[in-house]
Amino acid sequence: MTVISRLPGAVHQEWDWQLRAACRSEDAQLFFHPSGERGQAHDDREAAAKRICATCPVRTRCLEHALTVHEPYGVWGGLTEDERRALHGRRNRRVGSRHR
User: Keywords assigned by UniProt (predicted)?
Assistant: First the structure.
């Protein structure tokens, strides 16, 4: 017999946090750098995306999602792909040091 409590939630329960996201009314290009973007244009776009994330009511959930799925691109939960990668590295080093 199936144990219903172990089944994943309905799709809307897993993703409805996105409906409350501050970025929903923004241009998605703000959160994902175009090919070849560098320098001040890159820094300005990232800073603008992070300002929106800073006001977001679901920022933590967004970041959890990006970390869980190893989202490779864009600003999610106020962190860039490089910042998330560094966070994963720190987490992995901490976990590895506990198992020695």
Answer: 4Fe-4S, Cytoplasm, Disulfide bond, DNA-binding, Iron, Iron-sulfur, Metal-binding, Transcription, Transcription regulation
